[in-house]
Amino acid sequence: MNAPAFLPASSFSLNCVAAADDWDAVRAVRYVSLLERGDIADDSPPRFGDAHDDRPYAMTLLLRRNGRPAATARVMESTPPRHSPLPAAGAFAHEIEAALGIDASFVEMDMTHVGPGCGDEARTARFHLFKGVLAQASLRRSKWVLTAVCEDQIGFHGRLFGMQILSGPEAVAGLALPRVLMGLDLQEQRPILERRIPGLATHRAALEAFVATGHLSLDDPMGMPLTARHLQPG
């Protein structure tokens, strides 16, 4: 039996976006991804952003591969008693309250886009982005991760991240394709997920460095690199 192929994190780096050049790269990756998916019109401006980018409850991640912008995701927090007006609430407010209740803290992952800079490692890029989302959820002590995905992405998020479907397809403002709300109960499912995919875990020192520098180490705390086997469902 062949040993699993290693997918070293060394070719990837993950940072919080702060500099103007990084924002330009993020919005360009979003634009290319949305245009290829048919989510925005052909004559849309070649940089895609919205009002949530500048909100204090939002953090945007930029993943680079070999130094080049490759993928991005945005993480937004909502904490009781005053929940932030996150994008998913516009289409899924009833479903969020039904699944989580009114007192649950959660983060929403949105604006998740993988650009051509990932080459044939798009799935690996999504894992690294999700590691960043989980790290932010740890820092905010969130109980859930929510995300609204296209219907053709339901299987990926369900099989590989253990997320459950929380809604039917709904139209969302500004995008052509409907979205389905999915969620991960961190208290119940995170230990299971991190045992199956150790590379998604982040130890305390890495979290502290993330807060201090805006850079998240993509190395697994147990020294077990992400492998091709981890990228398979099951």
Automatic annotation (TrEMBL):
<protein>
    <recommendedName>
        <fullName>N-acyl amino acid synthase FeeM catalytic core domain-containing protein</fullName>
    </recommendedName>
</protein>
<dbReference type="InterPro" id="IPR016181">
    <property type="entry name" value="Acyl_CoA_acyltransferase"/>
</dbReference>
<dbReference type="InterPro" id="IPR054597">
    <property type="entry name" value="FeeM_cat"/>
</dbReference>
<feature type="domain" description="N-acyl amino acid synthase FeeM catalytic core">
    <location>
        <begin position="26"/>
        <end position="185"/>
    </location>
</feature>
<dbReference type="Pfam" id="PF21926">
    <property type="entry name" value="FeeM"/>
</dbReference>
